[in-house]
Amino acid sequence: MSPFLESVQQLLLRDLGKLETEVMASSNVGSLWLVRGEISNSAGTLCLHLCGNIQHYFGAVLGGTGYTRDRNAEFSRRDVPVAELVEQIRAARSAVEVTLPRLDDQRLDDDYPERVFERPVSTRFFFIHLVAHLGYHLGQINYHRRLTGRPDAAGHQV
């Protein structure tokens, strides 16, 4: 695997591990689904969205896993049990672990096979976008946990 692909894989797996830690830090499943004020996406919603995103773009499109994305459900489902969220996170991890080692550098310079922006982009560019997307929403989930008063992974109340 190329150094670029190794870096992408390392970052995605690291942040998916952090996502699992955030979800597991929930003292009750209800706090994962709280929304307040102008915040319309709960931590649970963002978790479902991230897992669907990764399973689709890495697993289905590039890895041929057969995963079928339901993006609307990512944003409409509520009160999904923590165990199911963790299962989705682990499925996203698997999509990354299975797909990235199969890719070569030439594939990175090709257009990503699915048009996701208003113009074609290279697979390399799209991977950078996906890493940033995961990090962005992971930060939102971390803030959500702290704003809803859930303890951190070490059990400290914030």
- What string, H for helix and E for strand, traces the elements in order? HHHHHH
- By secondary-structure content and strand pairing, the structural class works out as mainly alpha
Percent in helix: 55-70%
The structural domain count equals 1
The CATH architecture can be named as Up-down Bundle
According to CATH, the homologous superfamily is: dinb family like domain
The N- and C-terminal alpha carbons lie at a distance of 41 Å
Name the poorly predicted regions. Answer: none
Largest sheet composition? none
Number of strands: 0
Globally, the shape reads elongated
Remind me, CATH topology?
Four Helix Bundle (Hemerythrin (Met), subunit A)
- How much strand content do the residues show? under 5%
Number of continuous helical runs? 6
Assigned CATH class: Mainly Alpha
Radius of gyration: 16 Å
Mean pLDDT: 91
Overview of this protein structure:
By secondary structure, this protein is mostly helical. It has one domain (3-147): Up-down Bundle (Four Helix Bundle (Hemerythrin (Met), subunit A)), CATH 1.20.120. It has six helices and no strands. Helix 1 runs parallel beside helix 6 and helix 2 packs antiparallel against helix 6 (123-147). The protein is elongated, with a radius of gyration of 16 Å. The termini are far apart.
